[in-house]
Amino acid sequence: MSATHLHGPVVVIGTGLLGASIGLGLEHRGVPVFLEDTSPTNQAVAVDIGAGRPVAELDANPGVQPELVVVAAPPDVTVDVVARALERWPRAVVVDIASVKGAILAGLRERGADLTRYVGTHPMAGREKSGPVAARGELFTSMPWVVCAPPEADHDAVRLAKSLGADLGGNVIEFDAAEHDEAVALVSHLPQVMSSLLASRLQGTDLRLLALAGNGLRDTTRIAASDPGLWVQILGANAPQVVEHLYGVRDDVERLIRTLEAPTAPGARLDMAQLVSEGNAGVARIPGKHGGPPQAFAWMSILVDDRPGQIARLLTEIGEIGVNLEDLRLDHSSGRNVGMVEISVLPSKHDALVAELEERGWRVLQ
Ligand SMILES: NC(=O)C1=CN([C@@H]2O[C@H](COP(=O)(O)OP(=O)(O)OC[C@H]3O[C@@H](n4cnc5c(N)ncnc54)[C@H](O)[C@@H]3O)[C@@H](O)[C@H]2O)C=CC1
Ligand SMILES: O=C(O)C(=O)Cc1ccc(O)cc1
Predict the structure, then answer these.
(1) How far apart are CA 220 and CA 224, in angstroms?
(2) Where is each Prephenate/arogenate dehydrogenase domain found (predicted)?
(3) Does the beta carbon of 124 sit less than 6 angstroms from any atom of ligand 1?
(4) Is-above-0.90 flag for pTM?
């Protein structure tokens, strides 16, 4: 990885969730950012939260060109906005961050855009919310940041695109556009579709039934709250790759339906076990945090009295014991006078932590 950093100025066009998050992250590192959006409100909000200054202030100084332009507008308008930015700032490198890459590169080629100064990128980080109000400067920390350089791109343009991802704390990975689209169909677009399909089953359901919802439902439906306008564009631009996975899902669902229609038939239980085991095998392949190899963490549950300050005391004591928490979940059902804190740690730390916590009087369930 190149160790160079951005100096700026950087122009961000499209100051919604992603654009304002990029602006915040760069401004935090001292890189001057200028913002532009077709929505005056979104631009003003992004300025107000500290993501940069209006681009008019850069335009007022015609001698200064941006070092880098980041197009963070919706996929449908990205080709047009990138092509115009390449013409408007003839010395700047222009990157986009749209969730699909092949269609955008093809569109720019068709338009005869100067691809020596263009690099496609895609931060694999986001939220189920949109607009600058939801922006977070640390959104990209330790998340993959894909760089898809067209063969025509200058070395310096690629270096700058990588610096953007690295300066925002991302893990930079190089793919070509076709490989990228194939990968995101599986790791991003299919999860969105599955989450939406699942959550749509909840429509019209008696709220008394939904009151039983636990973490399983929440874990599998968070991204069902995503913006339909954005996802129409993403799925439309990557439809052939996504549909290949849906054929596989359809086959598996049909197999499961046949099994559950006759759950006591010979072989049916094996089929059910196989379905869950196949899921076990898939989930074990998801890389750990920071892009490392798959890492199975060891979980434990600690009972805490429902009194103010108990969870803070627990976390302080875990810090004193010197163990790093990998994940933390709270289960705090109303009407009970104890809560449950579930934590995960490296497997090598698990037994010693349980022993230490029990010694200090905590009730630990494994
Ligand atoms: N939402 C997410 O989690 C992620 C989104 N992306 C990509 O980032 C891009 C932006 O997505 P979000 O920030 O989520 O959307 P958003 O809806 O929060 O923001 C998009 C912004 O672009 C502005 N805009 C629309 N047309 C424009 C134009 N012609 N010129 C200038 N500004 C224009 C809108 O007014 C809005 O402020 C999309 O291409 C998306 O595929 C990439 C990774 C994650
Ligand atoms: O909310 C999440 O966890 C996401 O994964 C969001 C997301 C949405 C679109 C992308 O192109 C990349 C990431």
Answers:
(1) 8
(2) 8-294
(3) no
(4) no
